[in-house]
Design a protein that fits this description.
The protein is α/β, with parallel strands linked by helices. It has a single domain, classed as Class I glutamine amidotransferase (GATase) domain (Rossmann fold). The protein is 22% helix and 27% strand. Strands 2-1-3-4-12-11-10 form a seven-stranded mixed β-sheet. The radius of gyration is 18 Å and the shape is globular. The chain starts with a strand and ends in a 28-residue tail after the last helix. The model is unreliable at 173-183 and 226-252 (pLDDT under 50). Its EC number is 3.5.1.2. One of its GO terms (molecular function) is lyase activity. Belongs to the glutaminase PdxT/SNO family.
């Protein structure tokens, strides 16, 4: 059985492991730097990013995480994990937090507001649908979520989300039209890929839709093909499945 590491310092690591299990892939908890040597791909889950950063610093995880990313090993960050992977983060608490980096983007840490402003929404993701099947939208669960404001030239945008343009005007002058008037709506980026790095501002692990996990498994498989056998067991069907799960706190 294939093995994917899941950083288990804080946050929704159990939910990621359960989603991987449904796809026939074993997820193992990673809490110490040396444990990263036993896996070839890694998920950094959602949670409270400042707390996760303090725990990662306490366990001396940052050097090992940065080395993991720099070596081109597949890494997926969801919500707080996305913040970890960004090269630049704004909207941080006083004193900021350490970042792993590697993803050429600028992220706003709490763009969508506080915990009580968390929400669910249908988000268009044609690239996901083309690779994994199913509808072109997925149910995005945004919990005190970040948003990506800018990306570098090598970053592929996989999904974005409409927001009022005035919520972006203080960050990006591009939301103004040629007449100098602010448009009524703009968009922020909520899912990206840059080589072997995947980042999502939402929580796929809290839904019944396992396509994002399948997408990442295939990324890890592409990387593993260069040095080892396939990550995905031949007889495991990782196609889209909308059935209710009994072992996950799913949102409908």
């Amino acid at each position: 059985m294939a093995i994917i590491g899941v950083l288990a310092l804080q946050g929704s690591f159990n939910e990621h492991i359960a989603a991987l299990r449904r796809l026939g892939v074993k997820g193992v908890e990673i809490r110490k730097p040396e444990q990263l040597q036993n896996v070839t791909s890694l998920i950094i889950p959602g949670g409270e990013s400042t707390t996760m950063a303090k725990l990662a610093e306490y366990h001396n995880m940052f050097p090992a995480l940065r080395e993991f990313v720099e070596k081109g090993k597949p890494v997926w960050g969801t919500c707080a994990g996305l913040i970890f992977l960004a090269d630049k983060a704004i909207g941080q608490k006083t004193g900021g937090q350490q970042l792993v980096g590697g993803l050429d983007c600028t992220i706003h840490r709490n763009f969508f507001g506080s915990q009580i402003q968390s929400f669910e929404a249908e988000v268009l993701a044609p690239e996901l649908a083309s690779k994994e099947g199913g509808p072109e939208t997925f149910r995005g669960v945004f919990i005190r979520a970040p948003a990506i404001l800018e990306v570098g030239p090598e970053v592929q945008v996989l999904a974005d989300y409409p927001v009022p343009a005035n919520s972006l005007s203080s960050f990006d002058s591009s939301v103004e039209d040629q007449k100098g008037n602010v448009e009524e709506q703009s968009k922020v980026i909520v899912a990206v890929r840059q080589g072997s790095i995947l980042g999502t501002a939402f929580h796929p692990e809290l839904t019944a839709d396992t396509r994002w996990h399948s997408y990442f498994i295939k990324m890890a498989n592409e990387n593993g093909d260069e040095a080892s056998s396939s990550l995905v067991p031949v007889e495991v069907d990782i196609s889209y499945n909308k059935k209710q799960l009994s072992d996950l706190p799913v949102f409908q």
